[in-house]
Design a protein that fits this description.
Chain lengths: 264, 215
């Protein structure tokens, strides 16, 4: 059960600007606040604009100067992944590999070299998955391939690829069914998802994001890439985890309430 | 008769496919020209829908229901138009560029273009510059519209424009680009003719360029 803090991502305008202006204080503060809010990993993405590799190294170093949580190195470029991973002081996560042959061939050796945990997208050369069966089929290829390459199941985070509900009203139930099917087939593999895709194009997006988190957690999803500074989201996460039997004696829930971070 | 067109418009905007089908059939039975139903019923309705979407009054799902209703009428009218050899307003080749598999935005653009009276050639996703070149040669469109959702695949737009130039096809088409990471500035930097922030704007800008060309 873990949270990847999503905020340090250069596709967000404020972050792109902070990177351009080399605003170390702002970025370090954001890392610190995400860690304090309960993020288990901090995502680092510098792919949008500028010198991605130099910016990745700069960011990875400055974040680790202020927080102890491990990093999730996020890039479409294998070179930038490698640059970031090379600076990580703790076992990192890679975001992401997929079943697309080019991506697979370029990212797998990097994961092996750094013994990283890895987000594995359930898509392959046939394109984006359409059905729960599609996702399970790609999941099988990914898990088999990764474990054969020496990556333990506990280091694999399958992303079933959520699509916007506003485009097709069955995209919600599809991902919930895919999550349940993957969980039944692979009890030890993790299932991860970002939360913002599901609500794209619909009003009051945060409401849908939050409920999607609760429903998918009940189906067996156990990791999320989200904004840990959203206290309502984090409170729902703690409560959902307790209700799903993932919080022994509800101790984390109680501790969170006592600390004032979990609120009704 | 005029009331019937107004009713068609209203039913498209409200997303009532069976009603649009029924009203369109009624109009045809009463002897209304298919061209009139298209130009004064279905197209203005979708243009209103596009405007509402641009203003944030309509959400994607509502736009899609309206499009479904529009197609219910269009499917009746289209065969008649083809048999009369009526020319469409213009033709557009639309695709998501090489390396990019996202089809939602591209599909919305195709839908709104058809609703706007255009003939659409949808090349699909992950379309190479070569395929764009072939399609332009084969279909002789007025527009080439490209979609990309990733910062990393945006550069395929530039490659496609270059490929069209190298094949001497650049001057015969107007090129439009769009997608989450794309901006007006980027469109200018790669030499596209226009940028559209959403599917509604893709149609309104295409209309604008056609009107300019006609003058």
């Amino acid at each position: 059960m873990l949270i990847v803090g999503e905020l340090i991502n250069s596709t967000r305008k404020a972050i792109a600007q902070a990177i351009v202006e080399k605003d170390k204080g702002y970025l370090q503060d954001l890392a610190r606040r995400q860690a304090e809010a309960g993020a288990h990993f901090i995502d680092v993405n510098t792919a949008a604009g500028g010198d991605e590799i130099a910016n990745m190294i700069w960011l990875v170093d400055l974040i680790q100067d202020v927080v102890d949580v491990p990093l999730c190195i996020d890039s479409p470029s294998p070179e930038a992944l490698e640059a970031g991973l090379g600076r990580c002081r703790q076992k990192p996560m890679v975001n992401s590999i997929s079943g697309e042959s080019e991506r697979w061939a370029s990212v797998l050796p990097i994961i092996q070299k750094y013994q990283a945990q890895v987000v594995a997208l359930c898509m392959d050369d046939r394109g984006m998955p359409e059905t729960a069966e599609d996702r399970l089929r790609v999941a099988e290829t990914l898990v088999t391939g990764l474990t054969e390459a020496g990556i333990p199941e506990d280091d694999i985070y399958l992303d079933p690829l959520v699509k916007p509900l506003g485009v097709n009203h069955e995209y919600g139930i599809e991902i919930l069914q895919a999550t349940r099917a993957i969980r039944e087939t692979y009890p030890k593999v993790h299932i991860i998802s970002g939360l913002s895709n599901v609500s794209y194009g619909l009003p009051e997006r945060r409401l849908l994001n939050r409920v999607f988190m609760v429903m998918s957690l009940a189906m067996g999803m156990d990791a999320y890439i989200l904004d840990p500074l959203d206290q309502t989201m984090m409170s729902l996460w703690a409560a959902a985890k307790a209700l799903a039997g993932k919080d022994e004696y509800c101790l984390e829930y109680i501790a969170g309430v006592r600390a004032g971070v979990i609120k009704a | 008769m005029a009331n019937l067109l107004e009713e068609i418009q209203e039913s498209v905007i409200n997303g009532q496919a069976p009603k649009v089908k029924e009203l369109t059939q009624k109009a045809l039975d009463q002897g209304m020209e298919p061209q009139t139903i298209l130009n004064e019923g279905l197209i203005p309705a979708m243009s209103t829908v596009g405007e509402k979407f641009q203003k944030g009054e309509f959400f994607i799902s509502e736009m899609m229901i309206s499009a479904r209703a529009m197609y219910a009428g269009l499917n009746l009218v289209k065969p008649l138009l083809l048999s009369q050899k009526t020319e469409s307003k213009g033709k557009a080749v639309v695709a998501t560029v090489q390396g990019d598999l996202h089809d939602i935005g591209k599909n919305l653009v195709c839908m709104m273009l058809e609703g706007g009276g255009y003939e659409v050639v949808d090349l699909g996703v992950n379309v190479t510059p070569d395929k764009f070149v072939e399609a332009v040669k084969e279909h002789q469109p007025n527009f080439v519209m490209m979609s990309a959702l990733l910062t990393t695949t945006m550069s395929s737009m530039e490659k496609t424009i270059k490929a069209l130039m190298e094949n001497g096809l650049r001057e015969q088409v107007k090129i439009g680009v769009g997608g989450a990471p794309v901006t007006q500035r980027y469109a200018d930097s790669i030499g596209a003719d226009f940028y559209a922030a959403d599917a509604g704007e893709a149609v309104s800008k295409a209309n604008l360029l056609l009107n300019l060309a006609a003058k």
